[in-house]
Amino acid sequence: VITDEAWYDEDAGPLVRLYARVGGIGPAVRHDLELNAIIHGAPEGPAPDGLSADQQAALRLARRPISLSEIAAHLALPIGATRLLLGELQLAGLIHARRPSGDNHGATPAVLQRLLSGLRSL
Amino acid sequence: MTDRTRLVTGLAVLVALWLAAAAPALSQAVEVVSARVTADRLSRPTGELVLALEAERRLSTEPAGPTLTAQWARTDEAELALRTVRKSWISWLADSDATRQADELLARADRLAGVRATVVSRSDQVVDAYTALIDPEGLTTPTVHPDEAGAAAAGLSALSRARELLAEQDAQLAAVAHRTRLGDADRIRLSSLAGARRNLLVAAGNALPTGSLARFRQVTADGGLNAAENQLIAGTGGASAAAAWSAGYNRLNTGLWEVQDSAAREAATATSSQATVATVRAGLVGGVGLIAVVAVLVMARRSARTATGVRGVPDGQGRAAEAAPHHPEPLLRDLERRNQGLLHRQLRLLDALTRRASEDETLGDLFRADHLATRMRRNLEKSITLAGGTPGRRWRRPVPLGEVVRGAAAEIAEYHRVSTSQIEPAHLAGAAVTDLMHLLAELMENAATFAPAETRVRVTGAFDLDDYRITVADVGPGMTDDDLATAAEVMAAEHPPTGGTWWGLYAAGRFAARQGITVGLGNSPDGGLLAEVVVPGALISPATPATDDEASLDDLATVTP
User: Fold this and answer.
1) How many Å from the N-terminal Cα to the C-terminal Cα in chain A?
2) What value, to the nearest 5°, has the Cα angle with vertex B370 and ends B365 and B371?
3) pTM
4) Considering only alpha carbons, which residue of chain B is nearest residue A50?
């Protein structure tokens, strides 16, 4: 009589909920992080305690300038969640963000290709 | 049980109060209505029989002839009419004055045949014999109208009695008419009858209903009768006085009969409104009181049922527990399964919402909702597992152990205090995922609860030969040796300890036992509690490079120029 409903593997949902991947649950602060903002890590970076695995991964990605959307693609996170995640790192002074300049020498076809495939994987 | 006794006593008192209030009102109503009905139905035939007997008495003083025989027939008719009414449906309404007097009159009428025999033998006692039939008690008892209505009833009694005295006096006069001179005894008799009649008429005038009073004054204002009466008693009037008496007698007798009839009607109308009031009051007191008593009984019954239903079942599933007092588990398991399904759908919805949300504030709120739902799911899966079941979330393939650890951290209230950065990549067998996750959640929550709020809980994971060792360390006060012994005992026990303090560790022990995992608690050298979880190698497989975060990030780095 008991309805034994079960959900297997992907149907079971993510093991780590999104809020835990993004980091703290502090008050939401509006950061000036646009979709195409360029993120790069602060030069002196003793990685502090209490960063989520995804925040640490984002820091590693930001060793070189990288756009917010690219980080989101690599972490397989939604843009909104990525912005919160990076917002915390920015508040902690671990990264800097700037608007993209007109000539972006970093955007090689290979990078764009990777970005595209990452976006597709969303 | 004392509550029940108290309830029953209270109800008994209530019912007794209601009966005490309703019974008098009800019996009064019955009394008034029955008196009213009997008076209505009995007064006319009774009065007609009295009139017939009076007429017979008057005629009996004269020589027997066809007139007297015809009057006998009329009297018998009137008697039969009264007997018929008395035997009809109102016979059950006994005990009213009217029924009693009608019965007594009928009983005396049984002697009528004997009285008529004295008439035939021309006895001198014939008038008295009839008078004894009509009204044996003399002046004290009202003849026809005995009922309620107070002063009006007294007035009516006096009136009818006066009229009867008048008729008796007429009969006496007729009886002595053939004599030339009245004897002293006759004179005394006549004058006492006249005096009594006059007194009664004064009394009646003081008490009659106002509507009949004018007619009564008009009827009794005739002075001719009294004058003729005086002359007859004095023996001075002769034939003219006898004629004046006869004419006055006829006028007065007819007039008094009319007044009596209309006054009786008037009194009856007054009584009927009184009867209505009494009936309505009885209805209100009896009916409303009965409704109140029934309502209280129903409420008491309902509350008593609720009280017995809840006893012993703290979760409010009183009805279900009543139906199956010894086996509520299947029902509770079913409810847990249903809740699990609902929660799963809710979390999926929250997933979709958080992926869509672009406002930071909205996202923050959604995260908080997600966190609460996740903690709920942990409790629910814990409940299912402790009852011997398996949660609905299942994995066929191995999953990254780091995600299991981070998922465990996400399940506790202060998840941001947990550091999970030192986890050696590995995979965990799918069947052990929920058990290990909830086990670690218990240990992390324990650590976060007992360590100061600003401190962190560090979780590490690394291979230990074939097995995999996970540690959960806090910087709290640690535990005493006694507590450590108790904790080990609780984690090994099959049944939960009494008191909630150790329930978390008991659950951890159950989760570990299901998968052959061992848990050890101890104080770490630099302070704080250190929990060591050893996952057997059978549940662990090495990490596949392609799925590891670190590997893919390195991969990315090589592409970037």
Assistant:
1) 40
2) 100
3) 0.51
4) B419
Query: Does the beta carbon of A115 lie under 8 angstroms from any beta carbon of chain B?
Result: no
Locus of tokens 């090994």:
B492
CB burial readout A6-34, b (16+ within 10 A) else e: ebeeeebeebbbbbbbbbbeeebeebebe
Question: How do the pLDDT tens digits run along chain B, 561 residues long?
Answer: 566 677 778 778 888 888 887 787 777 777 777 666 666 677 778 888 888 888 888 888 877 788 888 888 889 998 888 888 887 766 666 556 677 778 888 888 888 888 888 777 766 678 888 888 887 665 444 444 444 456 677 777 788 888 888 888 888 888 777 666 777 888 888 888 888 888 888 888 887 777 788 888 888 887 778 888 888 888 777 777 888 888 888 888 888 888 887 887 777 677 667 677 777 777 777 777 788 778 877 777 766 655 544 444 344 444 444 444 566 778 888 889 999 999 999 999 999 999 998 888 888 889 999 999 999 999 999 999 999 999 999 999 999 999 999 999 999 999 989 999 889 999 999 999 999 999 999 999 999 999 999 899 999 999 999 999 999 999 999 999 999 999 999 999 999 998 788 999 999 999 999 999 999 999 998 889 999 999 999 999 998 765 444 444 444 443 333
Please state the ipTM of this predicted complex.
Answer: 0.80
Q: How far apart are CA A121 and CA B286, in angstroms?
A: 82
List the 9-28 stretch of A: residues with Cβ below 8 A of B. Answer: 9, 12-25, 27-28
Report the distance separating Cα A98 and Cα B159, nearest Å: 124
Residues of B in contact with A12 (CB under 8 A): 393-395
Compute the nearest-CA separation of A26 from chain B (Å).
8
Interface contact flag, A6 B392, Cβ < 8 Å: yes
- Which residues in chain B are closer than 8 Å to A7, comparing Cβ atoms? 344, 392-394
B334/A2 CB distance under 8 A: yes
Which two tokens mark B473? 């360390």
Establish if B328 touches chain A: CB-CB under 8 angstroms: no
Q: What distance lies between CA B425 and its chain's CA centroid?
A: 73
Burial class (CB in 10 A: 0-12, 13-18, 19+), B407: buried
CB atoms within 10 A of CB B483: 14
B304 at the A interface (CB within 8 A)? no
CB contact under 8 A, A19 and B370: yes
Which residue stretches of B61-183 are H helix? Answer: 66-87, 97-109, 112-120, 126-134, 150-176
From chain B residues 501-560, the ones with a CB under 8 A of any chain A CB are 549, 552-553, 556, 559-560
Terminal CA-CA length for chain B: 86
Rounded CA separation A49/B503 (Å): 31
| Tokens coding A63 | 């060793």
B458: left (phi over 0), alpha (psi -120 to 50) or beta: beta
How many residues are recorded in chain A?
Answer: 122
> How many beta-carbon pairs under 8 angstroms link A with B?
145
Q: Judge whether A80 is closer than 8 Å to chain B, CB to CB.
A: yes
Contacts of A1 in chain B (CB under 8 A): 330, 334
Place of tokens 């139905």: B41
Q: Min CA distance, B472 vs chain A (Å)?
A: 15
How far from chain centre, in Å, is Cα B254? 59
Tell me whether A105 touches chain B (CB under 8 Å).
Answer: no
